[in-house]
Each structure stands twice: as structure tokens, then as C-alpha cells.
Amino acid sequence: MKQRTHWESRVGFVLAASGSAVGLGNIWKFPYVTGENGGGFFVLVYLICVALVGLPVMIAEILIGRSTQNSPVGAFKSLSGTKSPWLSIGYLGLFSSFIILSFYSVVAGWSMHYTWLSVSGQLADLKPAEAEPIFDQLFQSTRMNLFWHMIFIGLTVGVVFKGISKGVERWSRILMPALFIMMLILLGKAIFMDGFSQAFQFVFGFNALKFSSTGALKALGQAFFSLSLGMGAMLTYGSYLRNQDGIVEASVTISILDTAIALISSLILFPIIFSYGMEPAAGPGLVFISIPIALSQMGSTTIFGTLFFALLVFAALTSAISMLEVSASYLIDEKKWTRVRATVVAGLAAGLFGIPSALSGGNWIFGSGLISLIGKNWFDSLDYLASNWMLPLGGLGIAIFTAWRMNEALRSKGFLSGSNLRIFYKIWLLLLKFLVPIAIVLIFLHAINLI
Ligand code: PFF
């Protein structure tokens, strides 16, 4: 059998996995979902979900990947047999990653469009009132959405078919820190804006009033989405990890980094929103409307706008790569396809499946909500179903499997090798056995108003 390729170092793995975790989910989605759900209390529930549910599931996912050195479906096959019902966790992950990639690339496409608007100077001298119409125009344009969506999918395919270790690892090393520094610069500006204290209160204050019955579901879904869990992405990345690299330390680092970037994004965006009297629940356009306003006030939209949106595209790319890698590695490992064929076919399929999402903003049938069963447009329906239901369901399966089904020797070896955090093994196992499944089931029941 061919030797599986590996990350060159633990740092390389942590950067690539953080690249998967940190993306549009942190900078685009977290602030707007926080805004729609009333702020503070939502953030608190989110943080609890990350620490007590997300982190244990992340360790389990990476551990299954590394122990089996296989992609999701193959991993469950090798652990529980070719006909086992546990394989459905692998297939669910495959399905979720495919769906998420199909609409994720539409938003990544918006980021590319804004990079272009910034480079070409079209955002220079922007008046605050002009920012929203610019976004609306893009949101409703069939042509622009399709164009950028396809370009972004093409870019993702281009990176994945080169193989994951060198390209992703090397670029992540430079661009992830660059993104972080850029965020800190913007945070430095935001702190001095009039709306900062109101924004701080909004993000960290305990405002439980606007928290609806699906608030906890959305916080849980957001935690899974942001940490790239429940769909086999971390499992697949874990399968390229060497045995001497500790999983627990890596998972803690990834979770902290991911959460920090989400919080920093909110502390950048909401001061702008409040300073200019905008609506915190503005929805998916939040970052695309508020950042250009802030930058134009600083008089630096062309340079900083280009830098910010280009880094956002990069953050989206390192996440999209991990989604496509799930489908590609399935076709390579299970169907014995070549990497090039697997990547191109999976990418093309996600591109085509993403067309209705790209058209969801326009006056098109996919945008009307008519064809959707749950009263949302196609894009929002997919996001809602995949992020809030399918990912936590995948996480539930992974937690139950790891805690109740997996061989103890294999599990403890996976947890302990390369790690100095042995004392947490028992706690981790208890969380996976009881707290994680119970919390996910309770949140599901609560969301459908059964409790
Ligand atoms: N975690 C990514 C983000 O926050 O943008 C999105 C994502 C990547 C979700 C990979 C799921 C996944 F498997």
C-alpha cells in the first residue's frame, strides 16, 4: 500500500487545520448571526458550545482520522466493518461538506468582488449611505454571483489537486498570521470609535431577551461550522497527521485561535454598525457594508480594503480546500480515482450544485422562498439545514462512536501519543460519553419545541 502523505510538522498541521477553521464563519457569519440573535447571551452559549461540545468532538475527529489514516467513510469502515451502520456518519459528512462548499463559495465570491472593487478604487471616497446599495446590487446580480462563484470554485480545485501538504501548509504559514495582524490593526481603529462601548456591551452583555427557541441550536450550529466539525474535514486532516504530533494541544490551540478571531471580528464590526446608526441584525451583508464604511472614513479603502478582502478570500480558500478535500479523499481512497480526476469532478459538481445559491439574492425562483419548505431562500435553507442540523448530527455520531464503540486501547493511544495532557483523558471521555450527546439532543428537542 502507498504510504500516506503527512504534514511536515505539527505546526504545519495546526496552521492548516486553523486555516480550515478560520474563515468566513468567523469574519462574515459569526458577527451577523450574533447580531440576528441579540448579542451577548448568544455569545455566551456559543462559547460554552465551543468549550464543552466542539473541543471534545474535534479531538475525537482528529483522533479517528489519525488512528485509521483514512478519509471519513474508509475510517468508519476500518473501525467497524464494511456493512456497519456507523458508515452513515462518514457519508453524512461527505454530504454536508459538499452542501456547505456549494454556498460557501458564493460568499467567498462576494469577497473576491470586494477585493476587486477595492483594488480598482471603486470604494474610495465612499459615503456611508452608498455602502448598502453596492452590496445589494451584487447580492441581486445573477451574472456577478455566478462569475465569482465559479472563479472561487476553480481556485479551490486548483489548490486541492496539487495535493495538500506543500501548497496549503506553506501559504498558511504566511497568510494566517497576516490576517491576524490585519484584524488587530482594524481592532485598534475600532476601539476608538464612538460606538465601541455600545458594541462591547452588545457582544459581551447578558441580553437574553432576543434569544429565541432556536438560539441555542444556532449557537451550536455556529460552533460546529466555525470549528469545521461534524463533516469529516478535521478527520481527513487528522489522517495526514503523524503519530508523534499531539492531538489535544493542537485542538486546544485551533479552538482558541478560531474563537479569538470570531470575537475580534465582532469587536471590529459592531462599533462601526453602532457608530453609523446601522442595524446589527442586517444579515449576510454585515461585513460587506460595514468594513468599506470604516475604511473609507480612515481614508484608506484602496490599500486596506484590498488587503482586508484579499485576506478574507484567503481565509475562505483555506476553509474551502478542507471541504473539497473531504469529497476528493473519498473518491481517491474509496473509488481509487486519481487526485486530479477526483478533485475536478467533485469541484465541478459542487460548482453546479451551488448555482441556486448564487442566484438566491436575485428576483429568481431560488430567492423567493417559494420553493423552500422552511420559508427561507435556497441559500439560507441550505445553510440552516447543513450548519444547524447536519453538522451537530455528525458530531453526535462521532461522539457516540468514539466514546461507546471505539476500542479502548486504540482510543487512549490516539489521545495520549505525542501529548502531555494525559490527565484530561478521563474528563474528555466523560464529556464525549454523556455531556456532548445529551447537550446536542436537548438542543435539537428544544429547537423543535419539544422541550
Ligand atoms: N470553519 C469554516 C469557517 O468558519 O469559515 C467553514 C467550514 C470549513 C465549515 C470546513 C465546515 C468545514 F468542514
Topology:
Elements: H1 10-21, H2 24-36, H3 40-68, H4 72-80, H5 87-119, H6 128-140, H7 142-160, H8 165-191, H9 196-204, H10 215-226, H11 233-238, H12 247-275, H13 286-297, H14 301-335, H15 339-353, H16 355-358, H17 378-405, H18 408-416, H19 425-447
Helix pairs in contact: 1-8, 1-12, 1-14, 2-10, 2-12, 3-4, 3-9, 3-10, 3-12, 3-17, 3-18, 3-19, 4-5, 5-7, 5-14, 5-15, 5-17, 6-13, 7-14, 7-15, 8-12, 8-14, 9-12, 10-17, 10-19, 14-15, 17-19
The structure holds 4-fluoro-L-phenylalanine.
What about the largest sheet? none
The tally of strands reads 0
Helical content class: over 70%
CATH architecture: Orthogonal Bundle
Bound molecules: 4-fluoro-L-phenylalanine
Structural domains: how many = 1
- Please tally the helical runs, counting DSSP H or I stretches of 4 or more residues: 19
Nearest-integer average pLDDT: 90
Molecular shape = globular
Work out the strand percent: under 5%
CATH fold annotation: Hydantoin permease
Distance between the termini: 51 Å
- The CATH superfamily label reads Hydantoin permease
Helix and strand succession?
Answer: HHHHHHHHHHHHHHHHHHH
Roughly how many Å is the radius of gyration?
Answer: 21 Å
Low-confidence stretches: none
CATH class: Mainly Alpha
Structural class: mainly alpha
Write up this protein.
- With 451 residues, this protein is mostly helical.
- The chain has a single domain (10-447), classed as Hydantoin permease (Orthogonal Bundle), CATH 1.10.4160.10.
- It contains 19 helices and no strands.
- It is globular.
- Bound molecules: 4-fluoro-L-phenylalanine (PFF).
- The site of 4-fluoro-L-phenylalanine has 16 residues, from helix 1, helix 2, helix 5, helix 10 and helix 14.
